[in-house]
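Review form for a predicted model. The reviewer records the input and the model, then writes brief findings.
Reviewer: anonymous (R2)
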Amino acid sequence: MSIDVMEKGRAAWPIDMRKEFDTNQLNGRVGTRLLSETGRVRVWEIRLAPGERIGFHRHVLDYFWTAVTPGRAQSHAEDGTIVEAVYSAGETRHFVYGKGEYKIHDLENVGDTDLCFTTVEFLDSANAPLELGRMREGETSSERGDS
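Model under review:
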């Protein structure tokens, strides 16, 4: 993965993006679709067409992601940092959060092909899982582990 970091601060973000950040600080939906949930893990898919974006969300659980497809993405972080990254298919990154630690960011596909990741969160992490709220279109109760 190659990364280009641009530190502009949140004040440089468009007003709509700043408002979305404020509204979604506790959004625990770290993917575009919840594929599976057990007592131990949540498995998410992130699938973004060129120009599509997953809005701000908060990571509090230990997790890893794997890039299913190669591509380019841009992410805005809580501290105002804007990161542009190039991903290779199969690339995997692991993250661990101590008690009270978290990360808030978004992700936009700035490439010219679909971008897909699989993300696995570990529910037995140092922090309690965030509530996901109601199901989104395409999710079923069995995908959420409710059956």
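Findings: The helical segments are 15-23.
Further findings: The longest strand covers residues 41-48.
Recommendation: see findings above.
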